[in-house]
Amino acid sequence: MRRRDFLKSSSLLAATPLALSLPEAIAAPQPSSAPQALAFPKGFVWGTATASYQVEGAVKEDGRGPSVWDTFSHLPGAIVHNDTGDVADDFYHRYKEDIQLMKRLGVKGFRFSIAWPRVFPEGKGSANPKGLDFYKRLIDELHANGIEPFCTLFHWDLPQPLQDQYAGWRGRETAEAFGEYASYVSKQLNDRIRYWMTINELNSYINLAYSENPIHAPKLKSTPKQLAQTSHYALLGHGLAVQAIRANASKARVGIAQNTNGAMPVVETPEHIAAAKKAIRHFNEAYEVPMLEGKYSERYLSKLGADAPRFTSEEMKTIAQPLDFYGVNIYSTTEVMAADNEDGYIVPKRPASYPHLTADWLYYNPQSLYWTPRLMRDVWGLKEIYITENGCAADDTLTDGRVLDTDRVNLLRNYLTQLQRATAEGIPVRGYFLWSMLDNFEWTMGYSQRFGITYVDYATQKRTPKLSYEFYQAVIASNRLA
Q: What's the CA gap between 462 and 169, in Å, rounded?
């Protein structure tokens, strides 16, 4: 099973020798005199990203409690090769080394997540100061190196006690506990963090973990009615966290990191563009519509019928708390074409020859970085968007101390071409966070897939920047396509 298999149904270069030893060979490249047509806006935030369980390791240090992924990854056969996140990239101990890699890369933003069970080992109740101290050290090191922290409060590592007591997000109590956690963390880190994201990929997490056929931790099989109610409580948790951050961090800018199910016209003609606008709203009725419109659509509720979630008007107001920015995790999108039917469009079936990369869910579609933010602006009037994840897994091989990942370079160049088109047309994308800074634990795929622009030898923890690192370094240095 792959990390985002459900997206398939829901939406969705010859290289010259390159010296990559650290630190001498990673000098920042000098900007060249490329056409300004290829440039990104002044002040555009170039960044990279990781997530706590995928990189930190140290799962039993300094009072950290177990998460659902600690439990799940130790079940025989749950993860490819029975891998776990027990050590991962050992980022907990090596973060200073990794921040130096980021500094040489030139990024001005780093998206990371806080492990909820480090701060509240029981999910609620008494906080663990040692757990929070790690993030204070991490953030201080980022600031010392000129890198802005972009913090995600929940990136899937739910404290196991909340799963045991309330069936995780199936219980409203977990949403309330999340609000309390957000309140504590934002109060403690108010002086260090400006950019906050509540939850990473609400729809991915809930659908992969609590659906009728779940594949991710906690792998809690649900009826359609239970799934709809679980989704609602997760949305409520998001809203409660937004309220908590605003109450405790006066200068905070608050958003979410969401893998909006994108749409794009099969051909750029008015009728197909209009069809794509209808489709993107339909594709995202369970999450974006309530968050951005403050209601469930009649179409969504009618489709669910007796399985629709129970909710109050007060809960809907909480869910639709105003956001300062919207983070979108984009890997691909779905082509739609105009049709004379009730929806106003159809989704053509992808042929077997449609290109994709190592992760078979990741259909190669660079236009996604143009059309997803464009349609989100057009449909919901968004005024500040960040691409909070984009990248790919590749068949990376370390040979003679180098990783010449020309496939990833090709993908990034073509995707960024479409992002540059978006910014040139005034679509309000303010920054881009490449996934990922490091190879890491890729959920049920364990360490069998590598998403990083930095190769990690998991036996020795040695870091080796890849060719894609150099490519991205050149883009950042010149603020234009390279």
A: 37
Q: Are 248 and 320 in contact (CB under 8 A)?
A: no
Torsion sign over Cα 300, 306, 309, 310: positive
Residue 1 domain-assigned (yes or no): no
Out of 56, 148, 201, 315, which one is annotated catalytic? Answer: 201
Q: Which domain holds residue 87?
A: 6-478
pTM (predicted TM-score): 0.93
pLDDT tens for each residue of 265-311: 999 999 999 999 999 999 999 999 999 999 999 999 999 999 999 99
Concerning whether 288 is annotated as a catalytic residue, the answer is no
264 located within any domain: yes
pLDDT number for residue 335: 98
Here the tokens at position 387 are 């691409």
Q: What is the rounded distance in angstroms from the CA atom of residue 470 to the CA atom of residue 402?
A: 12
Q: Give tens-digit pLDDT for 68-95.
A: 999 999 999 999 999 999 999 999 999 9
Question: In the beta sheet, which residues pair with residue 335?
Answer: 264
389 noted as active-site residue: yes
Give, as one character, the DSSP assignment of residue 377: H
Which residue among the candidates 285, 389, 442, 470 is catalytic per the annotation?
389
Question: Is 193 contained in some domain?
Answer: yes
- How far is it, in rounded angstroms, from Cα 442 to Cα 451? 8
d(CA 424, CA 376): 17
User: Structurally, how many domains does the chain consist of?
Assistant: 1
**What single-letter amino acid sits at 475?**
V
CATH number at residue 70: 3.20.20.80
Residue 3's contacts (CB-CB under 8 Å, 6 or more residues apart) are 204, 208, 216, 359, 361, 442, 443, 444, 445
For residue 184, tell me if it sits in a domain.
yes
Other Cβ atoms less than 10 A from the Cβ of 322: the count is: 8
